[in-house]
Amino acid sequence: MDPRWHNALYTTEGINSEGLEGHAYIPNGLKVQTSSPLNQHPGTNPEQLLSLSLSTCLEATLEAIEREHHLPHTSAVRVQVAFIGERAHYEFLVNAQIKISGVDFETATKMTAEAEKRCCVSQLLAGSRNYTVETVREFTNK
């Protein structure tokens, strides 16, 4: 086991023993109904959970960067996730759009780059050809 586990600031665990059409939960905490994005069944799916996780991490990181620079909080993050592929080889395409309306575009681009490097979820995705982060003036659909 990696010794860094012994000095963790926080740990959690998620459990799913029912598959895609079922439930996933945090022991003594959150429980969510899960389903495939390819049907109309109620529930959330891995694509939605990934977009929420990345957008929350990037936004929290941007909020910290804004505070460090004594700027008002004006950032917003939109993460789009596409499910692509075919049987036995599926992939996610992940695109994060960052909009910071309280600064000029050049400063916003620098803040985006810093957030991309500091956000823990972004660090997990870094280096994947399926992951992109962009600074935008307005959110757009892929």
UniProtKB/TrEMBL annotation:
<dbReference type="InterPro" id="IPR015946">
    <property type="entry name" value="KH_dom-like_a/b"/>
</dbReference>
<dbReference type="InterPro" id="IPR019953">
    <property type="entry name" value="OHR"/>
</dbReference>
<dbReference type="InterPro" id="IPR003718">
    <property type="entry name" value="OsmC/Ohr_fam"/>
</dbReference>
<protein>
    <submittedName>
        <fullName>Organic hydroperoxide resistance protein</fullName>
    </submittedName>
</protein>
<dbReference type="GO" id="GO:0006979">
    <property type="term" value="P:response to oxidative stress"/>
</dbReference>
<comment type="similarity">
    <text>Belongs to the OsmC/Ohr family.</text>
</comment>
<dbReference type="InterPro" id="IPR036102">
    <property type="entry name" value="OsmC/Ohrsf"/>
</dbReference>
<dbReference type="Pfam" id="PF02566">
    <property type="entry name" value="OsmC"/>
</dbReference>
